[in-house]
Amino acid sequence: MSLALSTLLYEWRRYMAAIVALAFSGLLVLAQVGMFMGIGKAFTAQIDRARADIMILSPGATALFNGGPSGVPRRIMPVVYQHPDVVAVADLDGSGGRWQNIVKGQNPGGEGKSDAAAKKMEFVNVTTIDAVPGAVTVPIDYSDDLVEALRQPYAVAVDQTALGRLGVKLGDQASYNGKTVRVAAVTQGYPNMMQATVVMSRDTLRMLGEANTGERVGPLMVQIKNPARAPIVVAQLNAIANGQFKAWTRQDLAKANEGAMMKESFIAIMLGFSLFLGVLIGVAITWQTLRGAIMANIKEFASLRALGVSMGSLRRIVLELSFWVGIAGVLAAYVLTWLVSLLAAGTGLTMSFPPTMVLMVSAMLVLIALGSGFLSLGVLKKSQPADLLR
C-alpha cells in the first residue's frame, strides 16, 4: 500500500471535509441530470418498453420529438411490411384534451362543498395501444389483464402518479372532451411529472372521434422476427426509403432522445450553472482541507526530507493523496445519488443516469481533487528539516 493511501486511511478525519465537498458537488450535477433524463424517459416510456425493435420517423427527425414534419406518409406502412423480416407494423396514435373527474354524491342544495372542492380539471395527453396481447404497441410490462381491461369501450388507464391530480381512482368515471370514460386500470412505472397522460385502446380513441385518419401517421413501430438483426433491417429499410422516412433501432433512438434532452436550452443552462457551482464549491473546500491537512503533517514531511526524500517525491505523494481523495469523493457521490434516486422513486419519478454523463462527472471530481492538491503544493516549502530541531 502506498504512503499516500495509507495516510488517507489512517487520518481520514482530516480529509473528510474534502470528500464530503466532492460528494455534494457530484450530487449537485448528477441529481439534476438524473431528474431531467428521468422526465424525458417518462415521455418515451411507452415506446422504450414496447415490443418494437425498430422505429420509423420522418427523414428530418434527429430524435423522437425533434425535427422534420409531423409523422410519415401512411402509404409507407405496406412498404415496410413487405420486408421479409418484419412481422408487425403499427402507428403510434394519440390525442389530447380536457379531463374532468365526475364527483359522486354532490348535494344540489349547496351542502356538497367538500365534493365540489374535489372537482379537478386538467388537460391530458392521450396515447393508444392496440388492445391485443402481444401487439407491437403494447409495452412489455403491460399484463394481459390490463390489456383486456382496455379492450372495453371507453376504458382508460391512468398511472398511479396522476390519480391525485386527475381526482380519480380505479373504477371511477370521468369526462374527456365532454364524453364519459372509465378508469379501468392503474399503471405503475410511467410517471406523469408534467402533463398527465391517459392510455386507451385505438378503438376507444376511434369511438371518441379523435383517431387519426389523415394521410400522415405518427411514428411507426416495427417488430421483426429476430431482434438481433435490427441494425441490418434498419440499414435495408433506409436504403429503400427514398427520402420518405428514416428507420432507427430502438436503442439508437433512445440515445438520440437522451442527447436531445441535454441540448435543450433550459436544461443546458441549469446543468451549466450547477456544474460551475459544483466546481467552485469543490475546489474551494477541497483546496483548503488538503492545505490544512498537509500543514498538520508538516513535521512528517520534514522528516521525510531529512531522510533524503526529494521535494519532487513529496509533491507526488501530495498529488497521489489528492487523487485518492477524489476517488473517495466519487464513491461518496455515487452513494448519495443512489439514495436520492430511491427517494425520487418513492415519489414516482425514476431517475436515469447516462453512463457518459456519470463518467464525465466522476472525471470532474477527480480533476477538482488533483487541482486542489496542486494548489496546496506550496505548503511543502515549510517542510524544512531544520524545523525538527526546534
Q: Could you walk me through the main structural features you see in this protein, from its secondary elements to its overall organization?
A:
The chain has 390 residues and is of the alpha+beta class. The chain has helices at residues 3-10, 12-48, 76-81, 113-117, 144-150, 163-166, 202-207, 230-239, 250-263, 265-296, 298-306, 311-346, 355-375; strands at residues 54-57, 72-73, 86-91, 94-101, 121-129, 155-159, 173-176, 179-187, 197-201, 216-217, 220-224, 246-249. 50% of the residues lie in helices and 16% in strands. The protein contains 13 helices and 12 strands. It starts with a helix and ends in a 15-residue tail after the last helix. The model is unreliable at 106-117 (pLDDT under 50). Strand 7 (173-176) and strand 8 (179-187) form a beta hairpin. The chain is elongated and about 90 Å long. Strands 4-5-9-6-8-7 form a 6-stranded mixed β-barrel. A 4-stranded antiparallel beta sheet has the order 3-11-1-12. Helix 1 crosses helix 12 (311-346), helix 2 (12-48) packs across helix 9 (250-263) and helix 2 packs antiparallel against helix 13.
List the helices and strands and how they pair.
Blueprint: H1 3-10, H2 12-48, E1 54-57, E2 72-73, H3 76-81, E3 86-91, E4 94-101, H4 113-117, E5 121-129, H5 144-150, E6 155-159, H6 163-166, E7 173-176, E8 179-187, E9 197-201, H7 202-207, E10 216-217, E11 220-224, H8 230-239, E12 246-249, H9 250-263, H10 265-296, H11 298-306, H12 311-346, H13 355-375
Parallel strand pairs: 5-9, 6-8
Antiparallel strand pairs: 1-11, 1-12, 2-10, 3-11, 4-5, 4-7, 6-9, 7-8
Helix pairs in contact: 1-2, 1-12, 2-9, 2-10, 2-12, 2-13, 10-13, 12-13
